[in-house]
Amino acid sequence: MRGDGGDVYWRRRMSVLVAVLVVVAVVAWACSSGGSGPDRSSAQSSPSPTPSADPLLAGLRTLALGTASPSPTPTATPTPTPTVGQREPGQPCVEEDLVLSLQSGKEQIYAGDARPTFLVTLVNTGPVMCTADVGPRAMEIRITSGADRIWSNADCVDGPGTEVEQLQRGVPYVRSLEWDRRRSNAACQGTPAAALPGTYVATVRMGGLRSGKGVFHLR
Length: 219
Known about the structure:
The chain is 25% helix and 27% strand. By secondary structure, it is an alpha+beta fold. The chain has two domains: 30 residues; 124 residues, Immunoglobulin-like (Sandwich), CATH 2.60.40. The strands form three sheets. Strands 2, 5, 6, 9, 10 and 11 form a six-stranded mixed β-sheet that branches. A three-stranded antiparallel β-sheet has the order 1-3-8, with no helix packed on it. The chain starts with a helix and ends with a strand. About 12% of the residues have low confidence.
Protein backbone atom coordinates (compact mmCIF):
# COMPACT_ATOMS: atom_id res chain seq x y z
CA MET A 1 0.00 0.00 0.00
CA ARG A 2 2.92 2.39 0.80
CA GLY A 3 4.42 1.72 -2.49
CA ASP A 4 1.24 2.65 -4.26
CA GLY A 5 0.84 5.78 -2.16
CA GLY A 6 4.36 6.98 -2.94
CA ASP A 7 3.77 6.58 -6.65
CA VAL A 8 0.59 8.58 -6.48
CA TYR A 9 2.41 11.35 -4.59
CA TRP A 10 5.12 11.72 -7.17
CA ARG A 11 2.66 11.56 -10.07
CA ARG A 12 0.74 14.48 -8.57
CA ARG A 13 3.93 16.48 -8.14
CA MET A 14 4.93 15.87 -11.77
CA SER A 15 1.46 16.89 -13.05
CA VAL A 16 1.64 20.22 -11.18
CA LEU A 17 5.16 20.89 -12.51
CA VAL A 18 4.11 20.15 -16.12
CA ALA A 19 1.09 22.42 -15.77
CA VAL A 20 3.27 25.27 -14.50
CA LEU A 21 5.69 24.84 -17.41
CA VAL A 22 2.83 24.87 -19.91
CA VAL A 23 1.45 28.09 -18.42
CA VAL A 24 4.88 29.74 -18.60
CA ALA A 25 5.35 28.67 -22.22
CA VAL A 26 1.93 30.00 -23.19
CA VAL A 27 2.58 33.35 -21.52
CA ALA A 28 5.97 33.66 -23.22
CA TRP A 29 4.50 32.87 -26.65
CA ALA A 30 1.71 35.39 -26.15
CA CYS A 31 4.18 38.15 -25.25
CA SER A 32 6.41 37.41 -28.19
CA SER A 33 3.44 37.32 -30.59
CA GLY A 34 2.04 40.61 -29.31
CA GLY A 35 5.36 42.46 -29.77
CA SER A 36 5.95 41.39 -33.38
CA GLY A 37 2.41 41.00 -34.73
CA PRO A 38 1.17 42.90 -37.80
CA ASP A 39 -1.12 45.10 -35.71
CA ARG A 40 1.78 46.43 -33.60
CA SER A 41 4.02 47.01 -36.66
CA SER A 42 1.22 48.76 -38.47
CA ALA A 43 0.50 50.95 -35.47
CA GLN A 44 4.16 51.95 -35.15
CA SER A 45 4.58 52.75 -38.86
CA SER A 46 1.37 54.74 -39.24
CA PRO A 47 1.97 58.48 -38.67
CA SER A 48 -0.04 60.02 -35.92
CA PRO A 49 -2.63 62.50 -37.16
CA THR A 50 -1.59 66.14 -36.90
CA PRO A 51 -4.07 68.15 -34.91
CA SER A 52 -5.69 70.89 -36.97
CA ALA A 53 -4.75 74.44 -36.09
CA ASP A 54 -7.27 76.25 -33.95
CA PRO A 55 -7.63 79.91 -35.10
CA LEU A 56 -8.66 80.99 -31.57
CA LEU A 57 -5.63 79.35 -29.96
CA ALA A 58 -3.36 80.82 -32.65
CA GLY A 59 -4.70 84.31 -31.95
CA LEU A 60 -4.26 83.92 -28.19
CA ARG A 61 -0.73 82.65 -28.70
CA THR A 62 0.08 85.73 -30.87
CA LEU A 63 -1.21 88.10 -28.18
CA ALA A 64 0.69 86.24 -25.44
CA LEU A 65 3.96 86.54 -27.37
CA GLY A 66 3.33 90.24 -28.14
CA THR A 67 3.75 89.87 -31.90
CA ALA A 68 1.88 92.28 -34.13
CA SER A 69 0.12 91.30 -37.30
CA PRO A 70 2.48 91.51 -40.31
CA SER A 71 2.07 94.78 -42.15
CA PRO A 72 1.35 94.49 -45.88
CA THR A 73 4.42 94.64 -48.06
CA PRO A 74 4.42 97.94 -50.02
CA THR A 75 3.97 97.44 -53.70
CA ALA A 76 6.80 98.86 -55.76
CA THR A 77 5.74 101.63 -58.11
CA PRO A 78 6.37 100.39 -61.66
CA THR A 79 8.80 102.45 -63.69
CA PRO A 80 7.06 103.81 -66.78
CA THR A 81 8.29 102.07 -69.89
CA PRO A 82 8.89 104.38 -72.87
CA THR A 83 6.49 103.81 -75.70
CA VAL A 84 7.93 102.01 -78.66
CA GLY A 85 8.88 104.57 -81.30
CA GLN A 86 8.73 107.51 -78.87
CA ARG A 87 11.09 110.30 -79.94
CA GLU A 88 13.04 112.70 -77.79
CA PRO A 89 13.47 116.38 -78.77
CA GLY A 90 16.72 117.12 -80.59
CA GLN A 91 17.19 113.71 -82.15
CA PRO A 92 17.81 113.43 -85.91
CA CYS A 93 14.64 113.69 -87.93
CA VAL A 94 13.06 110.58 -89.35
CA GLU A 95 12.37 110.74 -93.09
CA GLU A 96 8.76 109.68 -92.61
CA ASP A 97 8.22 112.85 -90.54
CA LEU A 98 9.63 115.21 -93.18
CA VAL A 99 7.89 116.83 -96.13
CA LEU A 100 10.20 118.19 -98.86
CA SER A 101 8.93 120.47 -101.61
CA LEU A 102 10.21 122.76 -104.35
CA GLN A 103 8.47 125.77 -105.85
CA SER A 104 9.57 127.53 -109.02
CA GLY A 105 9.49 131.29 -109.44
CA LYS A 106 6.49 133.03 -110.85
CA GLU A 107 8.05 133.01 -114.27
CA GLN A 108 8.36 129.65 -116.02
CA ILE A 109 10.00 131.14 -119.10
CA TYR A 110 13.33 132.93 -118.61
CA ALA A 111 14.55 134.93 -121.53
CA GLY A 112 17.79 136.85 -122.00
CA ASP A 113 19.79 137.03 -118.78
CA ALA A 114 16.88 136.28 -116.43
CA ARG A 115 17.86 133.69 -113.85
CA PRO A 116 15.50 130.98 -112.65
CA THR A 117 14.64 131.11 -108.95
CA PHE A 118 13.40 128.34 -106.67
CA LEU A 119 12.07 128.04 -103.17
CA VAL A 120 12.82 124.88 -101.14
CA THR A 121 10.79 124.07 -98.03
CA LEU A 122 11.29 121.34 -95.47
CA VAL A 123 8.63 120.70 -92.81
CA ASN A 124 8.82 118.52 -89.72
CA THR A 125 5.48 116.79 -89.12
CA GLY A 126 6.78 114.68 -86.22
CA PRO A 127 5.63 115.02 -82.60
CA VAL A 128 8.75 116.86 -81.34
CA MET A 129 11.56 119.08 -82.54
CA CYS A 130 14.24 117.25 -84.52
CA THR A 131 17.46 118.11 -86.34
CA ALA A 132 18.28 117.76 -90.02
CA ASP A 133 21.30 118.43 -92.21
CA VAL A 134 20.23 120.88 -94.90
CA GLY A 135 23.72 121.46 -96.30
CA PRO A 136 24.36 121.06 -100.07
CA ARG A 137 25.76 117.54 -99.67
CA ALA A 138 22.65 116.34 -97.83
CA MET A 139 19.98 118.46 -99.54
CA GLU A 140 20.80 118.46 -103.23
CA ILE A 141 19.05 120.72 -105.73
CA ARG A 142 19.55 119.30 -109.19
CA ILE A 143 18.66 120.64 -112.66
CA THR A 144 18.38 118.28 -115.59
CA SER A 145 17.35 118.39 -119.23
CA GLY A 146 16.17 114.97 -120.33
CA ALA A 147 18.89 112.51 -119.24
CA ASP A 148 21.52 115.27 -119.12
CA ARG A 149 22.60 116.38 -115.66
CA ILE A 150 23.02 120.14 -116.04
CA TRP A 151 23.70 121.54 -112.61
CA SER A 152 23.81 120.62 -108.87
CA ASN A 153 24.47 122.66 -105.76
CA ALA A 154 26.49 119.70 -104.44
CA ASP A 155 29.21 120.34 -107.05
CA CYS A 156 32.31 122.32 -106.04
CA VAL A 157 31.35 122.67 -102.38
CA ASP A 158 33.95 124.21 -100.10
CA GLY A 159 34.35 122.62 -96.67
CA PRO A 160 32.27 119.80 -95.25
CA GLY A 161 29.06 121.05 -96.86
CA THR A 162 26.97 120.31 -93.77
CA GLU A 163 24.42 122.58 -92.10
CA VAL A 164 22.39 121.16 -89.22
CA GLU A 165 19.12 122.92 -88.46
CA GLN A 166 16.54 122.45 -85.70
CA LEU A 167 13.13 121.85 -87.18
CA GLN A 168 10.22 122.68 -84.92
CA ARG A 169 7.02 120.79 -85.51
CA GLY A 170 5.01 122.43 -88.30
CA VAL A 171 7.47 125.32 -88.80
CA PRO A 172 8.91 125.12 -92.35
CA TYR A 173 12.57 125.55 -93.08
CA VAL A 174 12.85 127.70 -96.23
CA ARG A 175 15.77 128.14 -98.62
CA SER A 176 15.76 130.25 -101.79
CA LEU A 177 18.01 129.50 -104.76
CA GLU A 178 18.94 131.38 -107.90
CA TRP A 179 20.56 129.54 -110.80
CA ASP A 180 23.12 131.40 -112.86
CA ARG A 181 22.21 129.43 -116.04
CA ARG A 182 25.60 127.68 -116.15
CA ARG A 183 26.44 124.01 -116.09
CA SER A 184 28.41 122.36 -113.28
CA ASN A 185 30.27 119.14 -112.72
CA ALA A 186 31.72 117.26 -109.76
CA ALA A 187 35.29 117.67 -111.05
CA CYS A 188 35.01 121.50 -111.04
CA GLN A 189 37.47 121.82 -113.92
CA GLY A 190 37.59 124.77 -116.30
CA THR A 191 35.07 127.52 -116.78
CA PRO A 192 31.48 126.24 -116.68
CA ALA A 193 29.61 126.57 -119.95
CA ALA A 194 26.30 128.40 -120.25
CA ALA A 195 23.16 126.30 -120.49
CA LEU A 196 21.46 126.26 -123.89
CA PRO A 197 17.88 127.36 -124.48
CA GLY A 198 15.45 124.57 -123.79
CA THR A 199 13.23 122.91 -121.22
CA TYR A 200 14.65 122.08 -117.81
CA VAL A 201 13.50 120.28 -114.70
CA ALA A 202 14.51 121.14 -111.13
CA THR A 203 14.14 118.70 -108.19
CA VAL A 204 15.33 118.49 -104.59
CA ARG A 205 16.75 115.29 -103.09
CA MET A 206 17.37 114.59 -99.44
CA GLY A 207 18.23 111.00 -98.58
CA GLY A 208 15.26 108.96 -99.71
CA LEU A 209 13.05 112.06 -100.08
CA ARG A 210 12.23 113.58 -103.46
CA SER A 211 10.34 116.77 -104.21
CA GLY A 212 7.98 117.31 -107.06
CA LYS A 213 9.37 118.49 -110.41
CA GLY A 214 9.71 122.15 -111.23
CA VAL A 215 9.59 122.59 -115.02
CA PHE A 216 10.83 125.83 -116.62
CA HIS A 217 12.19 127.07 -119.93
CA LEU A 218 15.23 129.05 -121.00
CA ARG A 219 14.96 131.35 -123.97
